[in-house]
Design a protein that fits this description.
Mean pLDDT: 96
Structural class: alpha/beta
Low-confidence stretches: none
Order of helices and strands: HHHEHEHHEEHEHEE
Distance between the termini: 28 Å
Shape: globular
Radius of gyration: 15 Å
Strand order of the largest sheet: 3-2-1-4-5-7-6
Number of strands: 7
CATH class: Alpha Beta
Helix content: 40-55%
Number of domains: 1
CATH architecture: 3-Layer(aba) Sandwich
């Protein structure tokens, strides 16, 4: 993992412990999964994250590549999110666009084709299906869609949605990655 991302993760973890943010400590992408996500993201400038939470993944994706822009959707705004965005610094924060709306809204007119779609919002099957279908036509050729919490025993809906969609890809820890044609 790049040093600046590791530094952020260390600082965010300390901040979460200090303010009692159990949500971030239990829901954030684990370090090994984050390293895989960043590896998949290499060379991809237009990234969309579905499920901002406290923005740890969006920040890590922006920190990893100085040219990358991240659009992150979540209809529920976590009150600690701004504290973590403050840890990222202004230049990084300028490349993260937060949209406080449902991920099933899909892209806005004028959004660039999505090169990486990271689905980590609602984990029930119907929500995952709705999110994927809302974004499917916005994917650039060869884009990668990464589903978080695939095979997690508490979130069977993620795997069920991938199976229902008939996606063939690869499982990497708690991630499932599918490449668009």
């Amino acid at each position: 993992m790049p040093a600046r991302v590791a530094r952020f993760a260390w600082r965010a973890n300390g901040c979460a412990r200090g303010i009692g943010d159990d949500f971030s400590l239990t829901s954030a992408v684990r370090p090994a999964e984050l390293a895989e996500l960043l590896s998949i993201a290499r060379g991809r400038g237009a990234v969309v994250e579905l499920g901002t939470g406290t923005a740890w993944s969006a920040i890590a994706l922006a920190l990893d590549d100085g040219a990358r822009r991240v659009i992150s959707y979540d209809s529920f705004v976590r009150h600690d999110r701004d504290a973590y965005l403050g840890l990222a610094g202004g230049r990084v924060r300028d490349r993260i666009e937060l949209r406080n709306e449902p991920d099933s809204n899909g892209p806005r007119a004028g959004d660039p084709p999505v090169e990486l779609l990271f689905i980590d919002s609602s984990h029930d099957c119907e929500s995952v299906l709705a999110a994927f279908r809302a974004w499917r036509t916005a994917l650039a050729p060869g884009a990668v869609v990464v589903f978080h919490d695939y095979d997690h025993p508490g979130y069977p809906g993620v795997r069920d949605a991938v199976v229902e969609l008939g996606l063939v890809g690869r499982r990497i820890g708690g991630l499932f990655a599918w490449r668009a044609p």
